[in-house]
Design brief:
InterPro entries: F-box-like_dom_sf, F-box_dom, LRR_dom_sf
Pfam family, one: F-box-like
Helix content: 25-40%
Largest sheet: 8 strands, parallel
Number of helices: 10
Distance between the termini: 77 Å
Number of strands: 12
Structural class: alpha/beta
Organism: Urochloa decumbens
Domain F-box: 32-77
Strand content: 15-25%
Strand order of the largest sheet: 3-4-5-6-7-9-10-11
Protein name: F-box domain-containing protein
Length: 305
């Protein structure tokens, strides 16, 4: 018997049994605009910034109100969503600024891919002094000067990823990160440049010396960097709290007794020739060659972007 049908038995004069079925009344239509704010907040918390900005927060007035609550915008991830690859940069920049405004100064995590530029970094730095995690991926419109100026406004920064951002490379930028972010414990930098075996350019050596100023690091990821043993040793000596080191595709690092001794205190170590199966940018690997013209001269170290 269908459990959703109400049935009752009726006896007739000749004791025959008949069944009379009564269908339940249709359920009233639900008014989604009347959902309590805490329920809406729970739903929005499971969505990303892009989903909320592109529609979920525009359903009705109550949803728009809930979508503007600052606590929903403490973390803004605009790097992992597939729409980041197809939306134009101007739209993404506008959406990012709305997200920063809605955070009401409570933004703690921001990640952007492809579209972030110096202007947006400046905008964030003026409104998010509590930022703890920053991720910039494939942001070619971020310059040495733009990043150096913005990073001074993030004294609480704990994690920083700077990957595939080809226009950031000067020593003073990384020194500024080290000096301005004394709480920084995790730094990730992946590159897809063309490198020369057995040769570390002047600016790459200076970049390594800049990284060495990040004295509180517990985790360092340098993928596809041309630094040498000497510069890696300088980093290890300057970062005594380091527990995890990833130097895959850093083929100018050659294992010797000195490095083995310094690696002894690490909990996690990935060496230049280790597997890259779990590397997230497999379609943008760096290239290594025996002969290469250095595209950035030593004189460019004071480039004033």
């Amino acid at each position: 018997m269908d459990p959703h049908r109400a049935c009752r038995r009726r006896l007739t004069a000749d004791q025959g049994i008949h069944f009379v079925t009564t269908l339940p009344a249709p359920a009233p239509e639900r008014d989604w605009s009347e959902l309590p704010v805490d329920a809406l907040s729970s739903v929005f918390a499971k969505l990303g910034a892009i989903e909320i900005l592109m529609g979920a927060g525009l359903v009705c007035r109550s949803w728009l109100h809930a979508a503007g609550m600052p606590e929903l915008w403490c973390s803004v991830d605009m790097a992992s969503h597939k729409l980041v690859q197809v939306l134009d940069k101007d739209s993404l920049l506008a959406m990012a600024k709305v997200a920063v405004d809605r955070s009401g100064g409570q933004l703690e995590v921001f990640a952007g891919k492809r579209f972030v530029n110096d202007d947006l970094l400046k905008y964030i730095s003026e409104r998010a002094s509590s930022l703890k995690r920053l991720g910039l991926i494939s942001c070619k419109d971020v310059s040495n000067g733009g990043l150096a100026r913005a990073i001074t406004k993030f004294p609480l920064l704990d994690e920083f990823e700077l990957s595939l951002c080809s226009n950031v490379y000067e020593r003073h930028v990384f020194e500024t990160v080290g000096k301005s972010c004394p709480k920084l414990t995790r730094f990730r930098r992946s590159e897809n440049r063309v490198h020369r075996y057995g040769h570390s350019t002047h600016y790459k050596d200076k970049e390594a010396m800049g990284i060495a100023t990040m004295a509180e690091l517990r985790s360092l990821h340098l993928f596809g960097n041309s630094l040498t043993n000497a510069r890696l040793t300088a980093i290890l000596d300057s970062c005594p709290l380091l527990e995890s080191l990833d130097i895959r595709h850093c083929f100018n690092v050659k294992m010797d007794g000195t490095l083995r001794a310094k690696f002894a205190g690490l909990k996690t170590l990935r060496l230049p020739d280790d597997s890259i199966d779990d590397y997230e940018f497999l379609d943008q690997l760096p290239s290594w060659s025996l002969y290469i013209i250095d595209l950035v001269s030593d004189d460019d170290d004071d480039f004033g972007n």
